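*** Query protein ***
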Amino acid sequence: MNVEWKAIFDALMDGADDINILSYRLSDGSYIMAEEMDYDAHFDVLFLDLPVLIKQGRRGNISLEKWMFQPEFEEDIPAQPIELQCNKIVAKTEAPVSLKRDYLKYNFLDKLHGTFDEDEFQTILDEIHSYDLDKKDSSSDITIDPLMKAYLKRLKYPDKN
């Protein structure tokens, strides 16, 4: 088993709080989450990296899916950020740490998919799903649960916020 991905994954999970990942409520009613890279005041545009759509199921569970596709990183050309017109944003807030971790996990697995054969990828997937984030960080960040509850409430009753 290749251990390099574990070191990268651990570093991402440990540094999740420091990454500028925000969630946005858009004018069409959808919720997205992305790493905010830059802001152009002249054009009133945010530059986002790896945006995902946040979907909430009937039971309150949250799932993520790609919101827009970016060209893959090529050797001489970095991936271009997504431009989001600020007049399409109703609200934005920093994502709770637990949601940031889900975002990082989703994008990490998305990048790994296709680089390993099916069996190796399934093994990695199983290990990541069994990764115990609560034991790793719950003592150092007691705000994770209340923030997540507030976030879920906003998703469940968007018109009452």
In short: The chain is about 35% helix and 25% strand. The domain at 4-160 is CATH 2.30.30.100 (SH3 type barrels.). The radius of gyration is 17 Å.
